[in-house]
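Structure first, sequence second, as always.
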């Protein structure tokens, strides 16, 4: 009976330990959420553009309140962890003290009854306590393995996450003539978690080797159209074909190599200018310089202290240079040209510029791309005059398609409305 009581007490103690470890694991999950939120705010604080808004709109109180909320959240979790540890420590101490007391009482009674000699009391108590301690350590190790397995499982689950996209296996044919035929066939799409279609029943054949302008008001589905073309998303309905084959069947990485894209929200990194253009550690310096010259960046490059080895921004190097928005756009355009893909896409990278400056950049870029296929996406129409075909998007559908001259003949059409509402911003050479 005595041994059973000791075993029961030890097992109960280990159950308490397991329960405490489980609560600690749950608390760490809460800390992860608070860490994610705090990192978001730290990124905003260290961002120069965000800092301008904080100062100009006196948003310090707003951010202070947010940080106070996060701090209180952290403290509440840590307080809960501390309370759980105190409860477990107190319970563990009480049970251990009780079991030790029972050992001494049991051995003492045995000695009083003459079952063991006085000299053997320390030997028996020491042996029993050592047995209890060894059993406790063994069970603690087992509980520890079980607990650590929870943390390890999180890591393994992360490693085993597979992309939802089917990446395909068919190699993309390498064509010297760049004759890649692309077709959208009854494509519809809505973003995950949304019930509203962003694109609905879109069908269009893209003529390779020509200039296509994709125009429409903000929110008409232009950028989503490009995201589907580049397989950043897959359509919910319909299919997109490359040379008659569904693009999902092609090797994903090879398919992406067909495109050079400059998005409106493009990003440059705190690497050297050359690495930003080439997107690689190793690159052809001559090509980088030539590409930067083509986009009109030569004068700025000549004034950089270390040439194309000059770091952008000062995040990691005090000798880094700060660049203007217009300069950043030229670097982004150079990056697209350096990739030398057969299809080049400009997705409103000049949206922050005035219409005349935008037209000048599009005109210059149109000369540079040569015989490559080029898609120009904009809610303004500065690129339309030198495009072979124009697709007008409205509320997720293509409502008009044709050349600039053809679309202007339809005075009731959306393109006519858009063009004449903006023509006042273009110079005489651009106006209708």
């Amino acid at each position: 009976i005595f041994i059973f009581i000791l075993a029961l007490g030890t097992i109960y103690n280990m159950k308490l330990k397991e329960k405490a470890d489980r609560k600690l694991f749950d608390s760490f999950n809460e800390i992860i959420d608070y860490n994610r939120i705090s990192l978001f705010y730290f990124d905003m604080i260290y961002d120069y553009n965000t800092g301008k808004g904080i100062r100009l709109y006196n948003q310090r109180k707003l951010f202070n309140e947010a940080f106070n909320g996060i701090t209180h959240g952290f403290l509440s979790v840590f307080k809960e962890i501390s309370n759980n540890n105190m409860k477990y420590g107190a319970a563990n101490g009480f049970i251990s003290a009780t079991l030790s007391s029972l050992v001494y009482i049991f051995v003492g009674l045995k000695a009083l009854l003459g079952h063991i000699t006085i000299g053997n009391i320390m030997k028996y108590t020491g042996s029993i306590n050592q047995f209890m301690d060894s059993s406790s350590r063994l069970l603690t190790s087992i509980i520890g393995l079980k607990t650590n397995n929870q943390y390890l499982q999180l890591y393994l689950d992360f490693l085993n996450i597979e992309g939802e996209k089917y990446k395909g296996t068919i190699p993309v044919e390498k064509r010297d003539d760049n004759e890649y035929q692309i077709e959208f066939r009854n494509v519809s799409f809505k973003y995950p978690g949304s019930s509203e279609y962003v694109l609905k029943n879109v069908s269009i054949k893209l003529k390779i080797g020509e200039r296509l302008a994709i125009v429409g008001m903000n929110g008409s589905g232009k950028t989503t159209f490009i995201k589907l073309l580049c397989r950043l998303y897959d359509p919910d309905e319909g299919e997109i074909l490359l040379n008659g084959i569904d693009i999902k069947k092609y090797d994903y990485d090879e398919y992406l190599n067909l495109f050079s894209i400059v998005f409106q929200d493009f990003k440059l990194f705190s690497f050297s200018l050359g690495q930003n253009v080439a997107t690689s550690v190793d690159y052809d310096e001559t090509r980088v310089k030539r590409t930067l010259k083509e986009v009109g960046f030569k004068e700025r490059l000549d004034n950089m202290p270390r040439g194309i080895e000059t770091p952008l921004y000062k995040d990691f190097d005090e000798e880094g240079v700060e660049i203007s928005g217009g300069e950043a756009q030229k670097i982004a355009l150079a990056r697209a040209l350096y990739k030398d893909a057969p299809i080049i896409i400009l997705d409103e990278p000049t949206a922050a510029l005035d219409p005349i400056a935008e037209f000048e950049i599009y005109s210059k870029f149109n000369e540079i791309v040569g015989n490559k296929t080029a898609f120009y996406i904009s809610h303004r129409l500065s690129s339309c005059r030198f495009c072979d075909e124009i697709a007008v998007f409205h509320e997720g559908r293509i409502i008009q398609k044709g050349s600039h001259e053809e679309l202007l003949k339809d005075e009731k059409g959306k393109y006519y409305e858009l063009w004449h509402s903006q023509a006042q911003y273009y110079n005489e050479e651009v106006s209708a």
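Margin note: The radius of gyration is 34 Å.
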